[in-house]
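Lab notebook page, bench 4
Experiment: in silico fold of construct C2
Operator: M.H.
Input chain length: 571 residues
Purpose: comparison with the prior construct
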Amino acid sequence: MKNKKRIAILGGGPSGLFMFKRLVDAGRTDITIDIFEKKDQLGTGMPYSTEGAGNEHITNVSGNEIPELVTPIADWIETAPKALLDRFAITPKIYNDYKVLPRLLFGQYLAAQFDLLEQKANEAGIVYTIHYNSPVTDIIDLPEQNLIRVKIAGDRSFEFDQAIICTGHNWPIKHEGKVQGWFDSPYPPAKLALQLNHAVAIKGASLTAVDAIRTLARHNGVYFKNKAGKLIYQLSPNSDGFKMVMHSRHGMLPAVRFHLEDSHLQNDSLLTEEEIAAHIKGNNGFLSLDFIFEKDFKDPISQKQPVFYEFMKDMGMEQFVDAMMALRERADPFELMKTEYEEAARSIKKHESIYWKEMLGVLSFAMNYPAKHFSAEDMQRLQKTLLPLIAIVIAYIPQSSCEEMFALHDAGLLELVDAGNDSDAEPTEKGGAIYHYTDENGKKQSTYFKTYVDCSGQPHLSYDAFPYESLTAAHTISPALLKFRDAAEGKKLMQADDKKVKTDGEGNYYLKVPGVAINDEFRPVDERGNINKRLYIMAVPYIGGYNPDYSGLDFCERASETIAKSLFKNE
């Protein structure tokens, strides 16, 4: 055992599942694997357990869009316990790989995949240990001994050669529990099992908001289909006065789920790692956002959708986003969703992609990993311009969620407010929140809501929010920074807002972005640029500055592959 490489996976959710799969598939019997999970079940993580879902919540991906694990979902459905399938009214006969699944059911699939991986590890003679109910409380780097010490609840500690942080989602608590009627997130959804007789403010209009809507609606009324087959919502007599008001920065709803030509966000025409590296080398160490927009978005569209390409071929990134946003801004959001619902239904029925939307998802996925090589200027452009469009278009809201939102809106119980970029919710002593925003006419509004739910999604957490104090105290990790290509721009921004910019005193200026600095292998980098060879950070909330978009299971698959290659490199 002393001659084996000791590897720790910190977190047993989907990230930990894919990381474990990579290690098992490597077939290495010269390693030991320890998995630390804070709950008593592996695989489900937050999104696919009761921490993040109720019976009413569904995935926004179908079986054919899920990266390969041990067994396909269709095969697992054939063997899943009948009582489990009955709970969600699913049978092997009615299931197909193009349907979305209840999230809790999908969580059981992921848990079953973990069981199968354990069997594979046993058969291969790979030594592993699962530590249930073992939340990680601290991580200590021991460079002199070339080890990592992991501390868990109960003040127990373990030492490893390498550790991979896979701790997943984290929803910071600000006012929840102190201010009645204030919820910092809609998770766990059981806390929103409330029968109410007043309006509820919902911050955001993303899939996180849809989660809150699905839960609140079920506790204040019922859905049924009329004779024409249309879904209708009927408010409970005890919920008179209940309605939900979404507050969106752009006054827009997410786009509707459609058929993807390539369900795993891959494309043969994308830039290779070698092409990206060559471009960075020839561009003063920076990856150009315009370059990747042209090569990984416009060029593939020119081949697949020439008519649409003619429309946008001469547009730069900002022009294209402005054109797409203008189309959405001109339309009533619920009418636009109905139009997209019909468009998406045709796409799914014919198995034909809405290609520019698909390529926007592919672009987001493709640029996520090299985004740390953007200049500060390009990252600002990305955050201000492209990411808001990406967030709307690739949310992929499932059809059944659309139908429920239509029913609520038709009943006068679901509204959408364009709250602009300067909106803010203020907690009050009597409970609830006052929502401050500037409306479409430029008039300032302040509306009181007895119940407020922040549904803005998983935040990109700051460096200061990193939970393992010993790594911060020892400067093993450092804040994520992006260099300004034009030092004058950095200096100008620093004079306007010195909290956003840092200078090294040698004429270089850096934009502060959320989270921890990592290299291309997900290893933390300290302030001197030294790369830590004992630690990897795959926990998305803490690397959002260098990975501005992350796509669920696709992220888990890609990141775990990169880390697995790094673990055994140069041996």
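Observations: DSSP finds 16 helices and 23 strands in the chain. The first helix runs from residue 14 to 26.
Next step: discuss at group meeting.
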